[in-house]
Amino acid sequence: MAVFRRALTRASEDYLLVGLLVVLGPLLAWSPHSIGELVGLVPWQTIVALASLMLLSAGLEASSALARAGGWLFRRVATERLLALVLVVFSALLAAIVTNDVALFVTVPLTVRLVTHDGALLGRLVIFQAFAVTAGSALTPVGNPQNLLLWQSSQTAFAEFTLAMLPLAAGLLTLVMLLVPLAFSARRLPDQDSPPRASVDCPLAAVSLLGYPVFLFFVEAGMAPFALGIVVAVYALTRRNVFRGVDWTLLVVFVLMFLTLGVLADLALIANAARFMGQLPGGWLTSGTLISQVISNVPAAILLDRLTDDWRAIAWGVNVGGFGLAIGSMANLIALRLARRPRLWMEFHAWSVPLLALSWIGAFALAAIAIDSP
To answer: Are 316 and 367 in contact (CB under 8 A)?
Structure first.
């Protein structure tokens, strides 16, 4: 699955990489920043922490423990609606722990293998899995790259960040679950072959799972490089194949994003436009939601993090912004590519645009209590 994952994501990453290089070249030629200042635009602690998290996620995925758990759940559902609910909850919980893209690379292939009798049902299930990982990954600092960035820049504790995101994540997941009865019928699933039982590499699964609390401890202590050193050493001594499952190009993309948006944020036009959006109802929450629809939620978080210290409003906004247009989150693009269904983009937006509106309204109402309260 790791090879399939790299092949599928490389196209989107290459587009980003080429686009960032095209934009960054003229910006660097114009920019008055010195080399040292440009290097300082990149939050290296976040990059190092992201590398550690990607390695741990790759290890857990390579162990097949997640695929085995998913197959166990699938064999216990009888109706379309129940299958959708199980997938939504499972994908959301998984995304909160092992990041949104890993959750999709586990659950979507299982769904494709299970739902072979109805292409329309398969497409709808994948759409709702994309929604589920957006909602679930909003909960924790390690659920998605934008949360990891804001967690590191805000220097908050893991528990504090999670508690701040809990109302939003719970609200988003509730909205997605409420839509399930509208999208899926109570019709029984036809008898079909169960997904093959994955052979689990138990030692690798144990090492990867135990690595998460160790990783979090050292990152919270401001020792992200030490955490990366431990993770690299453990896999180098036990399972070197894990390194092949990591999308290293993605790290380069993030470094270029930080450089590009760091320079752009110094432009009066860009900064003023973002600040203007920050004056709209909902403030930075609204700004994060809207900007995500144009440049995706990770770049939106990088840009806004340079303009305000209100990390909670940014985090709420860019996570809500994962809904709406497919570009709002890379997870949406991954899910749609994995499904390999024609005309799925139109159906995706038929659900995602109203969901964005409902999510923003709900977040706006919750923010009056959860963010603005002392």
So the answer is: yes
